[in-house]
Amino acid sequence: MISDLDLYIRNSAQNVKVTGIYSILSKAGVEFFDEKGRKGKNHKYLWHGTRPENLLSILKLGLLATPPHAIQTGNLFGEGIYFAETFVKSYNYCTESSKGQKYALLCEVAIGSVFTSASLYDLQTTTSADAKNKDTLKIAGKNIPNDKFEVTAPTGVRLPLGEMQRNETLDTNWGAMEYSEYIVKDRSNVIIRYLVSFE
């Protein structure tokens, strides 16, 4: 799995120096995930970038949609927990610690039913009911992993290991993000599996 994670990182961020990969087992995280997420469908490993000062509370309490005690780094598409299928996207939400380290979390996410939008403009012209009835909102990016090389772990969780390519399914690039984002509404659909430290 470690070699897969290294490839997952370098497919979009070749110059990152990984200094550690740590398996995470959080009691609170397991309890919430067992409540709903484990039974959910469409599981995928996705990245979440964070600030060092948020790490302790995240590891203790798990990821929250709008944590009152944490410094916010992005909430463009409304409330939810934000993830990416490319390391470089989450990298932009990471800041250095006093020792020069940055941190990203690799999470197992039960993304379930997905409402896909091409841009913020596209989302604004959509009826709220369309997105409200889905488990996850996906903002499709211009650059995506080649899904021909996606692998499925023995646990059934999908890992997008393909190299980056242009997203040919987008009708227009107007207002589109460079990389896709997933906004998950329910924290019980998320469990942290790995912590990656890097420079």
From TrEMBL:
Residues 1-199 form the PARP catalytic domain. PANTHER family: DNA LIGASE, POLY [ADP-RIBOSE] POLYMERASE TANKYRASE. The lineage of its organism: Eukaryota, Metazoa, Ecdysozoa, Nematoda, Chromadorea. This is Poly [ADP-ribose] polymerase. Keywords: Glycosyltransferase, NAD, Transferase. It is an enzyme of class 2 (transferase). Pfam families: PARP. Its EC number is 2.4.2.-. InterPro entries: ARTD/PARP (IPR050800), Poly(ADP-ribose)pol_cat_dom (IPR012317). The keyword Nucleus does not apply. GO terms for cellular component: nucleolus. GO terms for molecular function: NAD+ poly-ADP-ribosyltransferase activity; NAD+-protein mono-ADP-ribosyltransferase activity. It comes from the Eukaryota. GO terms for biological process: double-strand break repair; protein poly-ADP-ribosylation.
